[in-house]
Amino acid sequence: MGKLNAVRRIVTGHDKQGRAIFKDDQSFETTRIPSGDADFALIWTAPTIPVDNNDECDGRDRDAGLTLQGGSVIRVVDMLPGCASPMHRTNSLDYGIVMQGRLELELDDNETTLLTAGDIVVQRGTMHLWRNPSNTETCRIVFVLTEALPARSNGLPLPEVHP
After folding, report:
1. 73 CB burial (10 A radius; 0-12, 13-18, 19+)
2. 1 pLDDT exceeds 70?
3. How many whole angstroms separate alpha carbon 54 and alpha carbon 41?
């Protein structure tokens, strides 16, 4: 169960004449999260939507939990072999793009679906967990999360459930 390759991030911007330039080109290793089921690499955050493209702050330097209230987050998640996340729900719209391996998405009614490289999930504030069914292969998935209004049921907002 070796670590996957580092994640390369290229950031563009503008010079004083308004021409496009490459501002940054770095690679980042994923690092183990406290629950021990995955390795994360934060790639970028934006504190607001719409985003201010004149903000010169490196988006990795912002404090971001699973989501960034009022903004957006992109991160790489390496789900470790045989591991599963806790069941959770966030007030966000999440796009998950499987880059490598296989991953099960389980909902709170125990229904599951299997995702493979190239599959994209649009996660809309539902209770769910992620499980890597392989005992040997790490699964890499990229998540783009944007703040959303809470999902509602019977007219009431569903609560966030954080691991």
Report:
1. buried
2. no
3. 24
